[in-house]
Amino acid sequence: MWGPRRHVSRGGYLITLRCTRKLLALVGGATVDNVPEPTAALGDWYANVVRTVAGELVVFANEKTLLSVAIPIEMVDRLVPCFADRVYNLLQMIGVPTDVALRECAELQPLEFAPTSNRSVIGSLNEIGLHYQLIAEGNAVRGELSLSTIERQLSRMLHKPLGYVHPAEVATQILQDRYGSAPSGTARPVSRTDLRPEQSRNGRAIARD
């Protein structure tokens, strides 16, 4: 599988994944009370479990940019590396240079878990989850949900907390400020070589890519 390699910084944990109670129960890991400053340029992420007609998803939203990625609930036992792979894939799709995407995603592992705290981000996360549900319903006849397609679509979604600027635009500017590389300007095509549908609990297939 292509994507970021595991990287451990001198400080140990690099970002915090703020999860809803339902997701924390599934993950079963210890949480932290005093959340450290993240080392990743995009900062911390929020996550929730979202039920769709194609099966349950773990939906992630970035605290600063509201970029969103998702994984099938069946992959929760590999949540951290799968999450980093999805972020890498999305950054490539919105035109972030490969070296910048790799450097940013290296800061996603390892991570700490904590409860959600920012009500504005929670509200945006719920709104994003609703869009996953609606798009899944629209694809119900086909019986599968292309995560890459929906992630790229939502990267162009307008959010009031961002001043109605696209998440992709906010993210690329932050990454350029941190790493000094301008976006490539051309979104890379979605790779289909790693397309391995996962069977959801209701029998529908959820495409990973």
Helical/strand content category: alpha/beta
Largest sheet features: 5 strands, mixed
The name CATH uses for the topology is: Nucleotidyltransferase, domain 5
Number of domains: 1
Rg on CA atoms, Å: 16 Å
Q: Give helix % range.
A: 25-40%
Multimerization state: single chain
Strand content: 15-25%
By DSSP (H or I, 4+ residues per run), the number of helices equals: 6
Total number of strands = 7
Helix and strand string, N-terminal first? EHEEEHHEHHHEE
Stretches with pLDDT under 50, minimum 5 residues: 1-11, 185-205
Largest sheet strand order: 4-3-2-1-5
CATH class equals: Alpha Beta
> Distance between the terminal alpha carbons, to the nearest Å?
12 Å
Integer average pLDDT: 82
Q: Architecture in CATH?
A: 2-Layer Sandwich
